[in-house]
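Let us work through a complete example step by step.
Step 1: write down the sequence.
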Amino acid sequence: MSQYTSDNASNADISVEPHAAWGAAPSERYETLARDWRGLFARIRASAVERDLAHRLPHDEIKWLRDAGFTRLRLPREQGGVGATLPELFGLLIELGAADTNVVNAVRAHLGFVEDVLTAHEAQWQAHWLSKLASGDLIGAGLSEAGSAKVGTFATHLTRTPQGIRLNGRKFYTTGSLFADWVAVAAQDGDETVYLQVPRTARGVEVIDDWDGFGQALTASGTATFVDVAVESEWIRPSSTRFPYAVPFYQLVHLASLAGIGRALADDVARRVRQRDRVYSHGNADRVADDPQILQVVGRLHSAAYAARAVTLQAAKAIQRSYEAHQDAATSEVPRLEALTQAHTDAHVEVDQSVSVITRLVLDASTDLFDALGASATLRTEGLDRYWRNARTISSHNPRVYRERQVGAFAVNGSVPPSFYRVGKG
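Step 2: predict the structure and record it as tokens.
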């Protein structure tokens, strides 16, 4: 049915829910794909405020997603996936982010590992992990450290002993690992950095929920320790080469979360304004829903959410082109190296350009929303503060000031953004 029954239709004739105009879908099949997930997303959103107040980790919610196959979306159909494109994946992440960004962040490392497997050149390693992923195995993060290691190195290390390879070290920001079957670890093997997957329940592995941030509090982004963990050789990736669009991919997951927050808060405020029956004596109408100043605030929030989604999906197209160029080069007898380099550079720059815009839009919206509501909206039990807390935390992981500088350096001097990021002592 058309949105309008006639060119002169009144508001009462509009046949869709209020503000359904979120923009074009990222693919022709997207709506069919998304319909399979929206009921589950709604179920996750229904308890988001309660979980936030009670600090209840989303073990159940992540299990629902895993059991339903969400963690296999990008896998080929023969591995239990649907072969989702990256724009389709990020469209779904925006919708899941509107339900709960804690859950999005908790599967971020897993989604990145899937890309590593899909783009791997090592056939045996790829086949091994495709089988694991197809069976539903979930991967958590164990890359970052909060210790004294210098930038570009890790204090976590492998040692060769008469009893075999052993892993020792300590990681922080281990997002999703408490929910996972495997922890993806970066470690030093002598002078080399290696990547490996370690069973979360292996002897000597401990994952602790000691993340104390004021936002994204339910991601279990705390500490993981590894004490003389026996490492099987097949757990170690044969090379340290990661997928070429890793940096923009991981950042775009954060941007999809921010776009999801924008959509959730815009919908939340619109609903509250519709239902609100208390007015100010110095307002402009007998109903809040008819007050033009309040409607202006609601409109500004929806505009921010619309733009954040559109920019995220546009950047996702650039990452898709990087993925396709990489796959084409892997199967081509004569790879087009110039086109390959251009596709990877574009993915980095387009995501960097998106960071500043989306961050500002959603952070502003998460404070402006209170201008449309009364003081009762600040009650903790209402849960509206979580939008700002989560958005501020997400946007602090990779400071936008550096992204803005990288875009400027590329625009002025043609300087290509770095392919990989590290944090540590200077």
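Step 3: interpret the result. The longest strand covers residues 223-231.
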